[in-house]
Design brief:
The chain is an alpha+beta fold. It has 2 domains: 89 residues, 434 Repressor (Amino-terminal Domain) (Orthogonal Bundle), CATH 1.10.260; 178 residues, 2-Layer Sandwich (Beta-Lactamase), CATH 3.30.450. The protein has 14 helices and 7 strands. The strands form 2 sheets. The chain has a 5-stranded antiparallel sheet with strand order 4-3-7-6-5. It has a two-stranded antiparallel ribbon with strand order 1-2. α1 runs antiparallel to α5 and α2 crosses α4.
Length: 344
């Protein structure tokens, strides 16, 4: 059967000429060898890390008359800093991960000044590139339910919005206040509420997230890290393909190959009901090594955000009450009695 290959490309965000591959989609849904895709990821990840570091930042001597043909470090300079031969590093940057040791990974981490998230991402890619061929697995259409004990824990967190997010940034569960906080995301008609789809495909997102650029960068970096951990996840591949074809903002960020680990921080919201909210958050994995996490948003005591959340909780309770009344079966006591005729 012939395969129609649609190549999604976009301009290099670093300003270099040419186009950079974002993703490949086949018309008959025939996957390529995942190892080849991962090797391409290794090439692009290492080359983008190398391009961002100048020789001055790396502590290498520079000469005023020297004209560099590439942005950032040359491959031989990375090899020198990493303590490997130039030939070995060239093979590695081409995606050949055969026989790589922890000490070599440490050397490359040092040479390219990788942070914790970037080093973990590289390790995941190298490990996958060396495994036997596997086809992409299709995860179940319905997201795996959250344990009842986790739901009870969230429900007991009065005054704290709480949600459970998986590595694709889908909201798998929430308490009442968490659902109220993310009510615009829950309006997604495509099934499981998705922060990623909301950020890039819903025009409300740029208002809901007051620091939309930061949120957009973080969203892509989290998805990129998840793709490195599990490149065989077909649902993730489908999500990336959807966002790549429908959002220029996503494509530009995806091509940068940035990865992040976000376990704490502050989110700046503008909620349609209660206005601005500055909410510190903590993200706690539900199991060791899991990318499914419970995220709680805890306002500073006696802050404007604390008062706004109290108002949001009141609004959510009233909405829930109205919904229950609207769906409750009508009893005789609630049926309207006919108005008696006017005796006059």
């Amino acid at each position: 059967m012939a395969v129609l290959l649609v190549r999604v490309t976009e301009r290099d965000p670093h300003g270099a000429g040419g186009a950079r591959r974002v993703g490949d989609v086949t018309a008959d849904d025939q996957p390529r060898d995942p190892r080849e895709e991962v090797r391409a990821e290794i090439r692009e990840f290492l080359s983008t890390r190398r391009a961002r570091i100048t020789s001055e930042q790396a502590g290498l001597p520079t000469y005023g008359h020297e004209r560099r043909r590439v942005a950032g470090l040359r491959r031989e300079e990375v090899a020198l800093l990493a303590g490997v031969s130039p030939q070995y590093y060239v093979r590695l940057e081409r995606g050949d991960a055969t026989g790589i040791s922890e000490s070599i990974i440490d050397g490359i981490t040092h040479a390219l000044q990788l942070d914790e998230a970037e080093r973990a991402h590289l390790v995941h890619l190298l490990r996958t590139a060396g495994t036997p061929r596997r086809t992409r697995r299709r995860t179940p259409a319905a997201a795996k339910p959250v344990r009842p004990s986790i739901q009870r824990l969230m429900d007991s967190m009065h005054g704290t919005p709480a949600v459970v997010l998986n590595g694709r940034l889908e909201i798998l569960a929430a308490n009442a206040l968490g659902r109220a906080l993310f009510s615009p995301v829950y309006a997604d008609p495509e099934g499981t509420p998705s922060n990623a789809r909301f950020v890039f495909l819903d025009p409300q997102a740029t208002t809901f997230f007051r620091d939309w650029d930061t949120v957009a960068n973080d969203t892509v970096a989290i998805l990129r890290a998840e793709a490195g951990r599990d490149p065989h996840d077909r649902d993730l591949s489908d999500l990336v393909g959807q966002l790549s074809t429908r959002s220029d903002d996503f494509r530009l960020r995806w091509a940068a190959h940035n990865v992040r680990i976000h376990s704490t921080g502050v989110k700046l919201f503008h909620h349609p009901v209660v206005g601005d909210l500055d909410l510190p958050y903590e993200s706690l994995p539900l199991a060791p090594g899991s990318t499914t996490s419970l995220v709680g948003y805890t306002p500073e005591p006696d802050s404007a955000a604390h008062d706004a959340l109290a108002l949001l909780a009141s609004w959510a309770a009233s909405e829930a009450g109205a919904d229950r009344r609207a769906h409750a079966p009508q009893t005789k006591a609630h049926r309207a009695t006919p108005t008696p005729p006017d005796p006059t």
